[in-house]
Design goal:
Number of strands of chain A: 3
Helix content of chain A: 55-70%
Structural class of chain A: alpha+beta
Radius of gyration of chain A: 24 Å
Oligomer: homodimer
Strand content of chain A: 5-15%
Largest sheet of chain A: 3 strands, antiparallel
Strand order of the largest sheet of chain A: 1-3-2
Number of helices of chain A: 5
Amino acid sequence: MSALAALADPVRARIVEMLAERDRSAGEIGEHFPISQPAISRHLRVLRNVRLVTARGDAQRRVYSLDPTAFDEIDEWVTRCRRIWNRRFDSLERHLDAVAAKKSRGGEK
Amino acid sequence: MSALAALADPVRARIVEMLAERDRSAGEIGEHFPISQPAISRHLRVLRNVRLVTARGDAQRRVYSLDPTAFDEIDEWVTRCRRIWNRRFDSLERHLDAVAAKKSRGGEK
DNA sequence: CTTTTATATAACTTGACTGTTATATAACTT
DNA sequence: AAGTTATATAACAGTCAAGTTATATAAAAG
């Protein structure tokens, strides 16, 4: 599963937001959702697998941290699409400039 | 379905990339995938629904364009998380500064 | 007006994902 | 060592999304 697919789930997106604020244990995270503890645990596993979060042990607890590296992956994709998209208008502009230049050289109409 | 969820599907992500390059008809898009025409048609409907693309008629064809507005939605979410995340280090910095200042004022150890 | 071309919709199947309860693991507490 | 706390895993059920084939629509071409 990709980082993007992982974030498509609203619970996981919210978990990521929570972890942006501060590190939290699995239990702390679970308190904010009306679903069972195992469900949260599996969401956390998914987020670990796509490297959106990391976990460290603290006695019985597992404390989760956001790993913002995965954001870059998404950001880069969006940015790349935007860059390609913008390039279209650049070349359209060049084309229109060329047409305008031709008109000037060759006289009206 | 959110724009993020729509892009989580690899076929749709690829379609968006293709449309960033240039507008294409539904058929043109379909040629690039090993799946049936109806499957492509439904992916396009999903992309239309989340406003990632628009379609205009050209005789029997439907020509699809990227609508990069929806990118902003994703970008904003990612940026917001990053901003919150970065703020953590700002306040950590402030804390460390405060500790350092105290030390200077109060003498060593 | 019948046929062809391009795309969309309908009905259905299948597989993956999210939730559940029950149970295992692992560390702290007494 | 026995009990408690925190989290993970197993097994299973329901939902939903993505694929399929068959069919409908709509414009072009003959």
